[in-house]
Structures are given as C-alpha cells and as structure tokens.
Amino acid sequence: MGCCNDTLNGSIDHGVVDYFKENHKENSKESSQKIFHSALQKRISDILYPILRKAFVHSYNGSIDETYDIQEILGLGGISTVRRAIHIETNFQRAVKIIAKNAISETQKIMLLDEVDTLKILDHPNIIRVIEIIEDTSKLNIVTELCTGGELFERILNSRQFTENTAASYMFQILSGLIHIHSGGFIHRDLKPENILFLNSNADSPLKIIDFGVSKRISEKSKLSRLIGTAYYVAPEMIEGNINYKCDVWSCGVILYIMLCGNPPFNGNTEEVIFSKITRGVFNFSSKLWTDISKEAKDLIQKMLCKDVEKRLSAVEAWNHPWVQTRAKKLIEDNPINLKALKKLACFRATSRLQQATLQYIASNLTASQQIEELRKAFVSLDKNGDGHLSANELRLGYETISLSSSIKIDEILKNCDSDLNGLIDYNEFITATINWQKDLSHELLENAFKAYDKDKNGTISVNEIKMFLGGDGTELDSVWAKILSDADINGDGVIDLEEFKIIMLSHIEGTSLDMS
C-alpha cells in the first residue's frame, strides 16, 4: 500500500509485527524493505487473471466438528436445522444449515447446491453471505454469516413506533439487494418477511435477504414447471406459469402493503381463494388503517402491484421512487462520505496477486464489527444507483464530495482494487481495500487462510493448490499460475510454506507504515 500513511493510524497487532521483525532480524532494515519493494515491482497488473468472489467459497469433504463448535438451534426448516457455530481457530460466529442427506432427494440436494452457487456470485451488503460448504457421509453443512436481529415483521411487531420513514429505509435496502440480484441475471422467487433478516439487534442494523433455494437464472422466455413461492406474495403471472424479474417487485409490493397496514392485499382462507384474488389484481386502501398513510406510499404500492407486467415498476424504478428516496433520506444521511475510507481506497496496493486474493478471502470471512459497519455505510453512501457496485463515475462523485477529485486517479483505483476485472469496485473489493489491516490481520487469520490453500495439508502451497483456490477453469496458461506462485516463493523452491506466506502477507503492513528498525 504505502502512499497514505496518515490514513493508517491505529493499533497494530504487535504479535504480527514481532513476527515480521523476528523473521528479518538477520537482515538490515534496507534488505527487509527490499523484499517488500521487490514484490511491489512485480505489480499485479502484470497478470490480468480475474479473482472472482465465488473462488472464496470453498466446498470440501470432512467433519464439520473439526472446524466448528456447533451450538444451539436457531431455526428449523422442512429439511434442515440451523444452528449457531463458532469457528474454532478464529472464534468467528456463523450460522450453519445442517441437512441430513438421507432426508432429501437428489433433486433437493441439487436445489441446495444451486442456492449456494447463486450466493457465491452475489456480493451485496443486503444479501446473506455464504462462507463454505462442508459435506460428510451423512450431512450437508452450509455455513453462512450469522444474523441475530430477527425477522423483518418480528422487528416491526416489537417496535414501539413504526413510521413510513422506517418502512422506506427497509424498502431502500431490500430493493437495492434486488437490483443486485436482477443485474446478475437472477430472480429470487420467494421474497417474504421470513426471508428478510436483520444482521444484529441494533436499531440501524442492515437487512439481509436470505433463502435463495428457489432462485433462478432466467431468460426472456423462462417458464415455470411448477408454482413456487408463498401464496400471499406470488405474482399473478407466476400463477399462469410465467416468471420475470418483476415477480420479485410484486412480492416487495405485498411486503410494503403489509408493513404499512398489517394485512395482506390479497387475503383468503385457502390458496385457491388467494390466487383467485391475485389473478384479478384488485386491492384497495379503504381500511381506516390507510387514512394517515401518504399518497406517495400508496402510489408506489399501486405501481409495484400492477397486474400488467409491462407497466409494473422494475426494482430500479421502485428504488428510485420519490417515497423511497425521500423517506429513506435519514438512512442516507447517516452514511456520510467516509474520508478515511476513500483515502485508503485510493492508496490500496497489493504486492502480488496471491496477496490480493488472500486479503479478499480474509475480508469475505470477517464477521460483523464496528469497522465493517462503518465501511458498509461508506459503501452505501457511494453507491448512488443502489446496484451494489461502485462505478468510475460514482467514485468520482465521492471524491468530489470531499474535495479530493483533482488529486485522485480513478483509473488507478480501478486498476488496483478491481480484482475480478469487471470495471467496477464490488462490495468485498471495497472492504478489502479500505479495512484497517494493521488492526485486523492476525496470525490466526493468516494461518486459517493458509490452510484454505493447503488442500493436501502437507504444509506447503503448490501451483495446483493456487489454481484450485482461485477457481481456475483449465483455460489459463500454466505461466499465469507459475507467476502467481513465484511472486510469493521467496526461497525459489517451487512451493510456498507458511513462513513465506506470512512474510508476503505481512508485507502489506510493512508497506504502509511499519518501522523495521
């Protein structure tokens, strides 16, 4: 990193610093810095190999008890049990969905793995993050980030005062998540309050969309082989066997209607009655409960629950509706442009492709903290179109806001931070570039990351293991993988051991402000 030392003040993990010094005590300060600067000169731009988010979600066979301490039950599903789990090495808290393999069909297993494949690709602050999949002879274990704040309606029922502004702040987040899902070519198909959780119990906790078990990549001519979803929230075209992105918007319209009055717009004692009302598409605001609800809220609901798909709002249009943007203004105002985060973003440099991939892997596995929450808010404040990516223009606007635009080269930021080469800064890329690694890069995290590479557990990382970690598909030149390894292979023996791995990773700290004297 090394260009903005003033932005990196804070406590340093002294165990990490001592380790770095100890492993270089036989060298002079000059030779120690030489290792770092030599690596820096190998700039990651030399190898334009994309590092994809899905590469960090690993699936492997083994006993989950070797990695996690499984704790109390958090929820029960038709085919699964969700429990709290503590990662043994890092002490991170997770949720694990445990599915008995003898209780599911092959089709159900495929659906579960499809859900995981979807979540591997999605990277958004309002979408649940999958961590890893561990399978043994009897169970399939899907590990995700842990949400402890309860379901959407549970929070509403327990709140002393629920306002339109609060409802708008929730819709702002849900629709932003939907924009991201749809931009990836997916439809959720089962949006309902039970599938929208709060990350924690704080009043300003972010929402997380969960349960992508029936999500689907769709095309213009996608058809339903069977009706999927929960009756109250199903769009009329789904009842007729058709699906499109706007099915999810309909579901959001139903959720908003219920949030504001407490009753569903299409009610009935049986699914048949409910579906009949949905097919007609007739609802009203005649109840006294709607007397004090604004015209703008009713306008948005009418446009989201429009039976004519062509006239129904898209997720982007609903997110940009004046009621959402105006009423959620406080949420936006509470996310000021973060000067420190933007400075760190501009200064981010990885010394090798391996280092950048590892930092992203660690960042994707970090649990919620005050620092992560501040960075999430900073990301949201920059994401002007709500799609979960930062474009060059959005970055430019952010730097203009803090009067730094004249000294910042946006193309350099993209070059250094856009590891998947999609021309945008994605959420995890942003967290990786802006987090205070001096505070968070611990020995435990580095050793856990090393083990993620070292599949055969022989204490070294080979070219093939790097390829497996980064998700190579066999089309890359062997020289690409050899170059990634050689950037970190300090002693030139053709593999990377734990000591070399730590030295390369800690050079990220040394390159900022670590005094080697």
How do the helices and strands line up, and which of them pair or pack?
Blueprint: H1 14-22, H2 29-40, E1 58-61, E2 68-76, E3 80-87, E4 93-100, H3 106-121, E5 130-135, E6 139-145, H4 152-158, H5 164-183, E7 186-187, E8 196-198, E9 207-209, E10 216-217, H6 236-239, H7 246-261, H8 271-280, H9 295-304, H10 315-319, H11 322-327, H12 329-333, H13 339-347, H14 353-365, H15 370-382, E11 389-390, H16 392-401, H17 410-417, E12 425-426, H18 427-434, H19 437-440, H20 443-453, E13 460-461, H21 463-470, H22 478-486, E14 496-497, H23 498-510
Parallel strand pairs: 1-5
Antiparallel strand pairs: 2-3, 3-4, 4-6, 5-6, 7-10, 8-9, 11-12, 13-14
Helix pairs in contact: 2-23, 5-7, 7-9, 14-18, 15-18, 20-23, 21-22
Domain Protein kinase: 68-324
GO molecular function, one term: ATP binding
Enzyme class: transferase
